[in-house]
Amino acid sequence: MLSERRLQVLRAIVQDYVGTEEPVGSKALTERHNLGVSPATVRNDMAALEDEGFIAQPHTSAGRIPTDKGYRLFVDKLAGVKPMTAPERRAIQNFLEGAVDLDDVVARTVRLLAQLTRQVAVVQYPSLTRSTVRHVELLSMAPARAMLVLITDTGRVEQRMVDCPAPIGEATLADLRARLNSRVAGRRFTDVPSLVEDLPEGFDPEERGTVSTVLSTLLETLVEENEERLMIGGTANLTRFGHDFPLVIRPVLEALEEQVVLLKLLGEAKDPGVTVRIGHENAHEGLNSTSVVSVGYGSGGEAVAKLGVVGPTRMDYPGTMGAVRAVARYVGQILAES
Amino acid sequence: MLSERRLQVLRAIVQDYVGTEEPVGSKALTERHNLGVSPATVRNDMAALEDEGFIAQPHTSAGRIPTDKGYRLFVDKLAGVKPMTAPERRAIQNFLEGAVDLDDVVARTVRLLAQLTRQVAVVQYPSLTRSTVRHVELLSMAPARAMLVLITDTGRVEQRMVDCPAPIGEATLADLRARLNSRVAGRRFTDVPSLVEDLPEGFDPEERGTVSTVLSTLLETLVEENEERLMIGGTANLTRFGHDFPLVIRPVLEALEEQVVLLKLLGEAKDPGVTVRIGHENAHEGLNSTSVVSVGYGSGGEAVAKLGVVGPTRMDYPGTMGAVRAVARYVGQILAES
DNA sequence: TTTTGGCACTCTTCGCACGCGAGTGCCAGT
DNA sequence: ACTGGCACTCGCGTGCGAAGAGTGCCAAAA
């Protein structure tokens, strides 16, 4: 087990390294933090910490830098979440309240997160399994062509063209719309398939083809709606990665363009609070030199989506976690109001 | 005036520099291109080209690199557009044909462009002044709350909540929907305001407030719809910018996040064909070391939006222009079909 | 007049040696 | 268990010299 002071030394190393971006040595440590012991003692502690794998030295005779494992310990045991100051919280709230619709909320959230953390922000659109259908609309576009519009309780709208096997009359369409809505309005996505299963039976045989075409399109749309989208921003902050960044930045940019990767990344975090994944803890290897700080957010008490930031492992964890948590909280409020 | 051979020298310099990314000297030039003259002659020509401002040398006693003005001449007079090969064209077509809806078309186009040109791709969503309204839908959400859904001929759907001053009945809503559609369906965005101007007059006095609220929301939505959106991709290709890129890449990333900037950028290109803006020709100073190759595309003969790529001034102009033109052409086809 | 070969000159780049300084590890002493 | 001292290791910056690429200019040839 590591003594209390050794943990303090680790904490000091992380803090200094995050600040200076340079390997930190024993002497500098004792000067900047008053640990009450001499450099020699600190050296012993550092040697122990290195044995345990919490810190490492880039080359012999250079200072130490924290390893992923070191950051992990720091995050878990040595540092809390740094709450936002009152003015910051007000600024967040004000900025988010200016949003006019869902897209705008997400867009503003991304900007805000990127600005607060000076890192790359990722925000998932709210939706998914807990979503319910608010309304389904059917419009006739051409004799054998209809448009299906799906509106969800989170305010998202999805449309799809439906090519019918046979011409369809306005009356039938209106009838179908009415029946459809009476069954699925207010219901969860996941419940819809079983609710509409027997719907074609209520129609004339020659219309059933059309009805089931419409229904299967609806089901498809629901599934696609489940495949969540997300928005990213603040990629310019990637330039903060460090001097060696040309090699690091490329896989990160590639990963950020693969929405699938990001969604998986956010999805992995099951923790109810703020989740931190450090360096190699990220499954995607392009992100092995980054840390991801994420948290769920949602309108009610339930989390309906995730948001977070991607930055260098050498980041200000307490501050970032604080910002992410605060933003999630206020976005939740905004969503609940609208 | 510049002699024919001097232009050939400039062309050779541009080609070599684009290929090698290194300043090109007189000797290397005569070796790689058989100009039929000696290095000394080429040196004289280079001196003349430098006097005219087409090329420059980074330091004394290094090779020459083209200036923005040099690239400009190259693009205008010395190089044509390199057409895509037949297999490439087939690949483009196949890839785009897999798209399921408008978003997907745009997304695929971005990927395609980024891959073909190995640069950052920008695609504007089709829409704008020539767009027409396909359908307007009104849904009751709560007693005094309605949802307005706007569907355009390009397949885009926009929705907006409307808070009414007074409760509104289903019947009134249906009535309004019918009247609204009979007036605006099929009409251009720009014509809508005058078409609905006198609509409230057909309603009971106590309903007029609600009606005009709905109408003004509709007009707002149309305006916002006009503010076009765009999608970008291939940012990982920014790492191709060169060795010195840390400083260059940052303003570019910042510019790419400002959709307004990009829209202005694309909007500036009035040329009916492929437009190339080189280096300082770009108004936004973050993009002063990039070139933008763009072109309009559209479903019919008319261009409804733009697409293009952003890359280093040192780029393969003929190839890039060919790729951009080809993609625009096939996207137009796809849009026309759907 | 244009082209060419030659030549001197300018700079950048690279390798190398050197010294400095930060930092380490170890050990003996408190 | 902590501390001070000491020898050792490297990385990093500096200065110098050689190499090489490229230029500009000039006088001769076409």
TrEMBL record, chains A, B:
Q: For this UniProt record, give its keywords in alphabetical order, as a comma-separated list.
A: Repressor, Stress response, Transcription, Transcription regulation
- Protein name, per record: Heat-inducible transcription repressor HrcA
Tell me where in this chain the Heat-inducible transcription repressor HrcA C-terminal domain is found. 103-321
What Gene3D superfamilies does its record include? 3.30.450.40, Heat-inducible transcription repressor hrca homolog, domain 3, Winged helix-like DNA-binding domain superfamily/Winged helix DNA-binding domain
Primary role: Negative regulator of class I heat shock genes (grpE-dnaK-dnaJ and groELS operons). Prevents heat-shock induction of these operons.
Name of one Pfam family that matches:
HrcA
| BP term (GO), one | negative regulation of DNA-templated transcription
Per the similarity annotation, which family is this? Belongs to the HrcA family.
Q: Which InterPro entries match?
A: GAF-like_dom_sf (IPR029016), HrcA (IPR002571), HrcA_C (IPR021153), WH-like_DNA-bd_sf (IPR036388), WH_DNA-bd_sf (IPR036390), WHTH_transcript_rep_HrcA_IDD (IPR023120)
Superkingdom of the organism of origin: Bacteria
Q: Which GO terms describe its molecular function?
A: DNA binding
Q: Which PANTHER family match?
A: HEAT-INDUCIBLE TRANSCRIPTION REPRESSOR HRCA
Record the organism: Streptomyces prasinopilosus
